[in-house]
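Sample 1 of the test manifest.
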Amino acid sequence: MIKERTGWIIAGLAVLLLITAIYSATVGTADISLREVVWITLSEVPLINRWVTAPEGSSRTIVVLIRLPRIILGIIAGISLSVSGTSMQGIFKNPMASPFILGVSAGGGLGAAVGLYLGVIFYYLPLLAFLTALGTVFLVFALGRVRGKTDIATLLLAGLAMNFLMSGLTSYIRYMSPPEKMVQMQILSFMLGNLNEATWDHVYITLPVMIVGVALVFAYSRDLNVIQMGEESALQLGVDVERTKFVQLVISSLLAATMVAFTGIIGFVGLMIPHGARLIVGPEHKRLIPTAALMGGIFLILCDTISRIMGGIPVGIITVLLGSPFFIYLLIRNRGDTGW
Amino acid sequence: MNEKIIIVAVVSLMLVGLFTVLPGVSEADESITVTDARGETITFEAPPERIISFMPSNSEILCYIGEGDRVVGVDDFSDYPSEIEDLPTVGDSSSVDYEKITELEPDVVVTPSFNNHTINYLEKIGHTVVATNSNTLEDVYSDMRVLGTMCGIEEEADQMANDLENDMNEITQNTADLPREDRVDIFYIASVGPIYTPGNHTFQNTLIQNAGGNNIADQEDGWWMISKETIVDEDPEIIIATEGLQEQVENLIEDEVWQSISAVENDEVYYVNDDIFSRPAPRIVEAQSTLTDITVEHLGIEENGEEEDVPGSTLLILLVSIAITFTISIKNKRYKRDD
């Protein structure tokens, strides 16, 4: 019964994602009609473009090179962050867990700040942010290993400590940056998350990471379910808890670090979307993960569309402003029953 | 001997041939090659007809060299001269409206080289970018030459840059080379709370130096946050702040500590136009002359000796007397008509 309903929910969300994406492609400074957007898009698809042609010109550039990569990167970021958050909350058995809990965002932020301060450009900047994000996570892991085991409480505290340290260093660099060359604005823009300046190259790099990452998290659905019942019963049921924890933390951090490197720190998606999904389909991970993924994609494109309508303010501001009231509403409606 | 002569003759003939052919080739197509601030070489088949200027100083330079009619879009802060006021705007450095830029179908986007992320993305989506330096005083002249070359008026722009440089030198001829001990200590306030001040290698620093001032903040490079202690310790004799900060600065210097500073004590706090004093554009001439007027008055330098004063006053007397005779004659005429 529930399984059947879940199938419909997931199919519905997939359709909604497509509709949101198409709608989003018609929004922007340039006035381009829905028909034009669809036509231009189809004319770029192999095979179909034998029959569909659209005129060259600025509209094509805007749709194909500006809007589409931006929307697709938004979907990839929304999916990656939501799935990463779902996995983190499952492993930590804690509703406050998010993709950034192990210091990914703070580490990536520091890397980006250093890069921007030094004037590093293009692919070196995401690379630097990615490396510092992962470096921070590994430090947290090293601190969280107690007697060969990953201790969740220690890990949380280590993550918290590294978050403070990295944010402190980032603030210092921001404070030291000369104001006349926009470095402070650029660091701020990174800290708030931004899909501006997305290119197809970003999509080509992040898409495989997302596919592999989400598939791996999904493959561990049963183990994640069992861990919810407590580590002892999980062990009795033959789940290698240590390995599951380690693999899940590494994958979630990789997903989050990749997204932070290319889009900056888009907050709240990875924290809130898993909760929303849990309220709809319950805590079972086989259903939860695809639901959260689709909801994340929809939510992020919606937020980015609003951010574009509002003159290009960082999407991270919208996710937080739009997400938190919704979160509070859910809390009030479901007090004492948050799907856990 | 003969052989040598033949070889020399052949070689020189070949060289002559080469040099006559080479310019011939480049003349055949009228392409324009510009080396911009990044060191990139950009080639245009013809001078770009549609330019987007993504920096107020670039807009001012383009209009100054008479190529303002090629500009089809500007950044949000470009507001001078009036010919660009009604042009479409395409955002600012912190949020660039790439769709608008693309929609305007520019032949080239002109932007400072420090907007490196914007430049990268613009090129990625197929736009041609020419980067300017837009930083120091010298950059005004070099940016003017680069943009002039781009617009196909290389020689004229070069001449205008030279003239501008001469004008600047003329303004500062009595002050630029003053010895250290004769200079007046100047503190330039660029922002309040925190107080940022332009240090070494900024164009405000050069303006101060040329005006016979000594920038009390030139121990550090670029804009930096100066402490109250340093300001008190350096005890500037003149404080320059932008008009936009007037209220805040007036508030600030009411403080007891500030009251002890010579410039505040002697009422030598001056407010200058924000745009003119912050844009590396041709209006540096106005900035330089405003600042030099302030320092010259403080230092009591007489411009080019005493004889300069005499023609000045004679001219004034002459003008006044002409005006008086003119009014009298008009009045007389009126009376006649009335008659």
